Amino acid sequence: MEPKITQELVNPQQWRWQLQPSLVLVLLPLVALLLLHRRKSNSTLRLPPGPWRLPVIGNLHQIGALPHRSLRALAQRHGPVMMLRLGTVPAVVLSSPEAARHALKTHDADCCGRPPSAGPRLLSYGYKDVAFSPYSDYVRDMRRVFVLELLSMRRVQAARSTREAQVEKLVGDLARGGATPVAIHEHVFAAVDGIVGAFAFGETYAAEQFKGEFIDVINESLALLSSFSAEDFFPGAAGRMVDRLTGLASRRDKIFRKLDGFFEHVLDQHLDPARAKPDGDDGSSRSHLVQELIDLWREHGATKGITRDHVKAILMDTFVGGNNTSSVTMHWAMSELLRHPLELKKVQDEIRAAVAVSQELVRHDDMPKLRYLRMVVKETLRLHPPATLLVPRQTTRRIKVGGYDIPADTKVIVNAWAIGRVPGQRRRLQRRALRAPALRRRPPDLPGAGDGRGERGVHPGQLALLLRLGAAGRGARRGREHGGGGSTDVPQENSADGRANKVP
């Protein structure tokens, strides 16, 4: 006789209700053991000190409108290596040269990750650039392209005529200002755009493409790359919804469409078979960064997976980084000199002694004589770094910094603005600037390539900046000699992305 199987035994709903209490009884001890093990493992770590935190938001309520100032104030109470929790994201803030050097040089291979971020993800075409992408073979190859094709001394020398033309235009604009207030940032951005356009985009200038929106596009791009997005600290649907409600997501989409249109225009021009190749100062054919990237795309696109978006992502780094770094530094240097007339006179006297009266521009050969000007650039970078907070990194495994344990997958924030204000930094930079030997080539400071603070001469980017600043100082003197007692709108504060702002 076959056993009788009741309906209750074959009813799956009945089985689920019967198993739930058993599953709870089995899982509760396992969850308790996991939590205990996690707490025990964390208790064995010597984590950095940090301020108290609130549930859910962590330390976000302690970050103000100027994060570099807020983080410095917290670091003064808790130390140069400080642990925070920003929403659900653990972060360590480094506010001293020693801590930054330890993390970015000693443990460079273990801090080469990049934390996910909504703004950089969109503007870098899904992390296809160099500045915001985790380290990989592709990033290494692209850095090599930057070094050889954009930042090399050969490139600086090849575009000498273009650079000097832009510098001469800047000097003339400043000298013609007369007694009217001078909007330094407009002149500086125009000069830098002319040089970056000649170097990278093949005589294609963003100022012409964006008309009157050029400076706004640059500033908006920097703001989105450096802004504190809700999705960065609450990954997932909740963070994306907050960004949509605050309008940050629509701002990102709008600026991305503008920049993407500009890069498409640049690529279409260079892909046009009827386009004539530009000539260098020596009459030979010379290419630009965009042409080198296109050639790389054509030759290795199938083997290395390089696409049109990869090329545009690299152009994004060049456009935002090239315009911002030089413009911000030059803007602040000129503003600080105008704010301190004695220092301005020293720079002008040095230029007068080093440069012939009949010579309109400061030349490359004049640079070794302009040591005080070099010190002005160092001091400007110390007080007003182009990026107050460096591009965040992420640890790939546990490391030790300043005697503290930094767990894996921790966001690493370097407060460059606070590091420049550590006691003794000014004297150290002045000594290095004054004893620096004659100019020679050095590896450029690429995004994410360590803290780049080693003094080995002046690299091409600083050389071009010194040339422009020296010419601007000469132009200011020439303007005063012609009766121009012009004033300027002098900034007083760095914004979160390093830009010069006026504040009460």
TrEMBL record:
Residues 432-504 are annotated as: Disordered. Keywords: Iron, Metal-binding. One of its GO terms (molecular function) is iron ion binding. Residues 461-471 have a biased composition (Low complexity). Gene3D superfamilies: Cytochrome P450. Residues 432-441 have a biased composition (Basic residues). The keyword Transit peptide does not apply. Belongs to the cytochrome P450 family. This is 4-hydroxyphenylacetaldehyde oxime monooxygenase-like. The lineage of its organism: Eukaryota, Viridiplantae, Streptophyta, Embryophyta, Tracheophyta.
